[in-house]
Amino acid sequence: MSRESTRAGVALTGVSRRDFLRLSGAGLAGAALLGVAGCGGEQGGGQQGGGGGGGGRNELIVGLDQEPAILNGFIVGGDLVATSNVTRPIMESVLQIMPDLSYAPKLADGEPQVVSEDPLTIEFRLKDGITWSDGEPLTVEDYVFTYETVMNDRWQIITREIWDSIDRIETPDELTARIIFREPDARWRDILAADVLPRHILQGKNFNKYFNDRIVGSGPYVFEEWRKGQSLTVVANENYWGDPPAIKRITFRFIPDTNSLKAALRSGEVQFINPPPDIGLIEELRGYDGVTVQTKFGTVWEHLAFNVEKVDNLNIRRAIAYAVNRRQLIEEILQGDARPLQSVLVPEQEPFYTPAWERYSFDPDQARQLVERARGEGASTEIEYSTTSGNALRETAQQVIQQQMEQVGITLRINNSSAETFFGERTPEGDFELGEWAWSATPDPSITTLFGANQVPPDGQNYYRYRNQEVTRLLEQADVTVDQQERARLTRQAQELMAEDVPLVPLYQRPEIYAYADNLEGPEVNPTLATAFWNVGEWRFTG
Question: CA 293, 295, 301, 302 torsion: positive or negative?
Fold first, then answer.
């Protein structure tokens, strides 16, 4: 499942089924034009080094390229990676997604069990002694409340995918939950990877508003302060049920400009950054004194997205697919630090991945023929091209793609917006013609919420307004098919049909990049919507 990563327009594979797909904004997707929070020029240069601010202290300062719009990740506006970044230290789930794309117990006491296949019944037990940050016990009633909240049509839930397959949840005791589905659902692990909500805090409250500016969870940290446009701070949870975190305070500083973000790390103003890909970024970061760099490919993929209601001529969409020279983008702009991608899943999601867009190898002559055909059909060859503003990489890519399109007779007019506006308003409302962003996802290959005909906002994350009933049937059938080989066959077939319709053009698989002070121990790249802070409670400074 995917979620727009709100980091330079990236969304985790499979676009946002709440915690399953996230929009990625800054960096690739484009950074929000928010306050830089005191991050200036290159003071200190490479002399002080990235470790200058961290050693021996109990405070970690993180530089983020994007600020969340709200903190409630369940409702519209919360499907950004920026939201996940700042809430991950606070909120927890029954299962967590690991760096190797597996699922592991978090709140669960061991692996959930399939106790029946007909009807599909999943049972899990919570660990003893778990409490919320205010000391109240966390029980399966909180999980039941989470389910009821998602299914309450009063709330502006991003998507109810998977949850709406549940018939009922039984609770034999306060730590055991038995989830009984109306029909099989192969994606069931993803709803166990969703944050659990505190019933005693939220019951009777307006869920559309109450958790937007502050949240309560069971994680190693608690919310302290959000200085909008500048920073958000969390502090160690004194009632944490697990091992207490070594770092007692984490401040997330919002630094939307990539150069300022790098300068802050280099000077020691911040000790950790997870920047969006940029021109020559990895090589540059590796040249900083006192800085460790980790990279890994995962479920984040960059693409060109059509609003097919506005760009409704198939020949124009196919022409653009043929005219985009993806290898030029990767080699000249990203200097090889990305992989060309041929579908809406990534190769690591075998056996579900198939290179369906491989048919659109760079072919400007074919593109010109399709443009002429489209003109004969009365189609416009002038298209608005939008992404998140302020991101050097995406804006450079726009210029290159704009030139590539000119070569085949298509004019692209650039109209960018801040990440907040682009992801919070324009994409859900369909206020774009050709967009660029990324998705970030869980390991599960479901893409129904992104491309199902019945998933157009506000019912899902089909920002493309793409409606192909056969694709929808295949995706929905795959979701309820437990047999992996059959599910993979259906998913591959759906990708092939989508490639014929071209509701989007995959560009490349993004690397996840962590750069941090040498004396910071614990970061491990998790290239999914679990975010860089999936294990932040285990981080510590050394020396």
Answer: positive
**Helix/strand/coil for 450:** helix
Q: How far apart are CA 94 and CA 181, in angstroms?
A: 18
Cross-strand bridge partners of residue 249:
59, 235
Q: Could you give the CA distance from residue 300 to residue 24 in angstroms, rounded to a whole number?
A: 8
Helices and strands (H and E) in the chain: how many = 16, 22
| Contacts (Cβ under 8 Å, ≥6 apart) of 371 | 315, 316, 319, 381, 408, 409, 410
Query: Which helix H or strand E contains 365, and what residues bound it?
Result: helix 364-376
Given CA atoms 233, 239, 245, 248 in this order, what sign does their dihedral have?
Answer: positive
Q: Which residue has the higher pLDDT, 488 or 4?
A: 488
Could you tell me which residues come within 8 angstroms of residue 317 by beta carbon, excluding any fewer than 6 positions away? 306, 308, 311, 501, 502, 503
Instruction: Please write the tens of the pLDDT for every residue from 59-116.
Output: 999 999 989 999 999 998 897 889 999 999 999 999 999 998 889 999 999 999 999 9
Q: Tokens 């479920």 — which residue?
A: 299
What pLDDT, on the 0 to 100 scale, is given for residue 280?
83
Provide DSSP, 136-178: PBP-HHHHHHHHHHHH-TTS-BS--TTGGGEEEEEEEETTEEE
Q: Are strands 11-12 and 434-441 parallel, antiparallel or unpaired?
A: unpaired
Contacts with 32 (C-beta within 8 Å, 6 or more apart), sequence order: 25, 26, 66, 67, 254, 256, 388, 390, 418, 419, 420
Q: Which two tokens stand for residue 182?
A: 């109306």
Confidence (pLDDT) at 511: 86
Structure token digits, residue 257: 């400009």
Judge whether residue 184 has pLDDT over 50: yes
**β partners of residue 104:** 96
Confidence of residue 441 (pLDDT cuts 50, 70, 90): low
The whole-number average pLDDT for the span 443-460 is 90
CA contacts within 13 A on the Cβ side of 211: 31
- DSSP state letter for 479: H
pTM of the model: 0.74
Question: What does the alpha-carbon distance between residue 487 and residue 425 come to, in Å, rounded to a whole number?
Answer: 34
Say if CB 20 and CB 444 are below 8 A apart.
yes
Sign of CA dihedral 77, 81, 86, 91: positive
**DSSP string of 501-531, one letter each residue:** H-SEEEEEEEEEEEEEETTEE------STT-
pLDDT of residue 27: 30
Q: Which helix (H) or strand (E) holds 294?
A: strand 291-306
Question: For the CA atoms of 5, 8, 9, 12, what is the dihedral angle to 10 degrees?
Answer: -30
Q: Taking a C-beta distance cutoff of 8 angstroms, is the pair 304, 504 a contact?
A: yes
A 10 A CB-CB count for 368 gives 17
Give the chain's mean pLDDT. 88
Tell me the average pLDDT across 172-196: 94
